Recover the amino acids of this structure.
């Protein structure tokens, strides 16, 4: 075993004294005094080889023959002392990553729940607004002055008056283009009706009504049958837009198809622009 002074160790490892002292603290090594001179602090050649292996250092100068390389087991026995903090740190990082992933999943779930609630509130507001407009559209319309000049193709229509069979109730039959890509007929008394649009049953059903609402792909409106002392076969559409009432002749019951209803809805929708 050869004793090397602290300065010789710094020279062999090519590091400054401060760095070497830090390495000694990390490896839990301590300097010892020289056997013949108590003023000199030394390390053994085995300790120097251990430090070189731990920090991947190549000794800078040749050493005496007695400066033999220690057994691998001695160098490896020092490594777990340094690797233990690293392993604990990796475990903590893995736990933190798992916690972050859990928080992200919870945040995503809360965001989706808030979006659903906002969509429901928006849908409820739209339904309430639609009900208010429908209720306002149940009143007789006064012919709008200037409508004929602005829309030349619109026929002059008489003021719509509710006939005796009309019930003062905003729940009237509804024809709506549903999310399934087809028209749905809804009766306030019977619910959804299994009637195919533009079929003989469709025209017979329209002939039995006095009013209905239409919500199509291009717009919406309310419709009433004409009434001259008694109900007739003619239908008139009406809608309030920008605090003005508009009306338009639709046709007779046997000529009212879904295509004609969409044309009327698009006509009213043009006033929204």
């Amino acid at each position: 075993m050869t004793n090397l002074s602290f300065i010789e160790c710094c020279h062999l490892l090519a590091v400054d004294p401060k760095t070497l002292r830090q390495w000694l603290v990390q490896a839990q090594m301590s300097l010892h005094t020289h056997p013949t001179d108590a003023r000199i602090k030394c390390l053994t050649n085995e300790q120097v080889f251990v430090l070189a292996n731990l920090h991947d250092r190549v000794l800078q100068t040749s050493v005496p023959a007695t400066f033999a390389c220690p057994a691998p087991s001695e160098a490896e026995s020092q490594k777990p002392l340094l690797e233990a903090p690293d392993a604990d740190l990796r475990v903590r990082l893995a736990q933190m990553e798992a916690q972050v992933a859990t928080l992200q999943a919870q945040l995503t779930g809360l965001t989706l729940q808030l979006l659903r609630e906002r969509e429901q509130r928006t849908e409820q507001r739209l339904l309430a607004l639609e009900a208010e407009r429908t209720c306002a559209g149940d009143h007789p319309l006064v012919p709008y002055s200037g409508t004929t000049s602005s829309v030349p193709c619109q026929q002059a229509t008489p003021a719509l008056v509710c006939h005796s069979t009309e019930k003062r109730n905003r729940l009237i039959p509804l024809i709506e283009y549903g999310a399934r890509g087809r028209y749905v007929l809804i009766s306030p008394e019977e619910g959804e009706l299994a009637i195919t649009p533009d079929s003989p049953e469709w025209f017979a059903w329209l002939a039995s009504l006095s009013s209905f609402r239409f919500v199509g792909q291009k717009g919406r409106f309310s419709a009433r049958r004409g009434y001259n002392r008694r109900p007739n076969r003619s239908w008139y559409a009406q809608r309030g837009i920008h605090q003005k009432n508009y009306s338009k002749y639709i046709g007779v019951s046997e000529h009212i198809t879904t295509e004609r209803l969409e044309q009327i809805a698009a006509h009213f929708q043009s006033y929204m622009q």
